[in-house]
Amino acid sequence: MRLIRVVSGGLGIYDKLKGVVPSTEWNSVINQDELNWLKRPDINGESGPLRSYFTIKGYELFKARALPLISQYIDPSTIQAVESIVIREPVYVDEHQMVFAALLTPEEAE
Q1: Which contacts qualify for 75-82: CB closer than 8 Å, 24 or more apart?
Q2: Residues of 63-82 as b/e, b for ≥16 C-beta within 10 angstroms?
Q3: What is the pLDDT of residues 100-109, one digit of tens each?
Q4: Count of Cβ atoms closer than 10 Å to residue 59 Cβ
Q5: What is the model's pTM?
Q6: For 76-90, what is each residue's pLDDT tens digit?
């Protein structure tokens, strides 16, 4: 299955967004319809660090709905869509995304 991970500066796009949006504005930004369509499964940390990937359907919705808003906070030239093949079992799946336990690089593990 083709999966797409959207990153900026080496971080997943939503982690990057959280890092640039002032903390006082975060809840109002993340709860906007443009971003709130993607389910947020309650699995944070259950399997250690997680990595999320869009399905093709999810990526198309992301580009149409979320990317215009995200581009107001993150320079679009730094945003990359990386096609990925993941061979592990996901910890969460829906029609828009698959979430996997992350394999950390040595730098991330420090």
Answers
A1: 78/8, 78/9, 79/6, 79/7, 79/8, 79/13, 80/6, 80/7, 80/8, 81/4, 81/5, 81/6, 82/4, 82/5, 82/6, 82/7
A2: eebbbeebeebbeeeebeee
A3: 887 655 454 4
A4: 21
A5: 0.83
A6: 999 999 998 877 789
The pLDDT tens digits for 15-59 are 999 999 999 999 999 999 999 888 877 776 555 778 899 999 999
Q: Which residue range forms the structural domain that includes residue 39?
A: 3-109
Domain count, the chain: 1
C-beta of residue 98 within 8 angstroms of C-beta of residue 56: no
